[in-house]
Write a structure and sequence with these properties.
The chain is built from one helix and eleven strands. By secondary structure, the protein is mainly beta. The longest helix is centred in the middle third of the chain and has 7 residues. Bound molecules: deoxyuridine-5'-triphosphate and magnesium ion (MG). Deoxyuridine-5'-triphosphate binds next to strand 8 and strand 9. It is an enzyme of class 3 (hydrolase).
Length: about 150
């Protein structure tokens, strides 16, 4: 499904020096976000830094959100993940898109201006309207959870 989303360029390097976020392949789910830094950033082991992406989006549809997810290569090979594990962008948010980068690895990691640091994925949202009840319709699982069914 395609959907038009308003995007504001906050840093003039976006769309010039650094490409606008774009799907790398026809089947890509994520758009890479780039570090809109003025200079090289050295992320020490254990350190978390909030990095601007140089853009803002306004989703404007309560049935849609965006998530910021780690890039698997950075996370697996270098221990570079997100300080909030997953970023959630509300449909009514209009501020700058920020990426919290956490070095959970043992070595420092260098981030250069324009580096692709995370990815943005749009997702459908269902807003719940709660119905207060005293009991639920019975299911096979019932209240079992958290490993209730065993390991293998
Ligand atoms: O990685 C992220 C996560 C969030 N946001 C922005 C968009 C989101 O809509 C807003 C609020 O995020 P969230 O609700 O997760 O944070 P909060 O700590 O609950 O803040 P608030 O009280 O503003 O809702 O911050 C980002 O730019 N990057
Ligand atoms: Mg919130």
């Amino acid at each position: 499904m395609k959907k038009a989303i308003d995007l504001k360029i906050l840093d003039p390097r976006i769309g010039t020096d650094f490409p606008l976020p774009a799907y790398a392949t026809p089947g890509s789910a994520g758009l890479d976000l780039r570090a809109c830094l003025d200079s090289t950033l050295n992320l020490a082991p254990g350190e978390t830094v909030l990095i601007p992406t140089g853009l803002s989006i306004f989703i404007g549809d309560a049935n849609l959100c965006a998530t910021i997810l780690p890039r698997s290569g950075l996370g697996h090979k270098h221990g570079i993940v997100l300080g909030n594990l997953v970023g959630l962008i509300d449909s009514d948010y209009q501020g700058p898109l920020m990426v919290s980068m956490w070095n959970r690895g043992k070595d420092s990691f260098t981030i250069e201006p324009g580096d692709r640091i995370a990815q943005l994925v749009f997702m459908p949202v269902v807003q719940a309207e709660f119905t207060i009840v005293d009991s639920f319709e019975q299911t096979a699982r019932g209240e079992g959870g958290f490993g209730h069914s065993g390991k293998a």
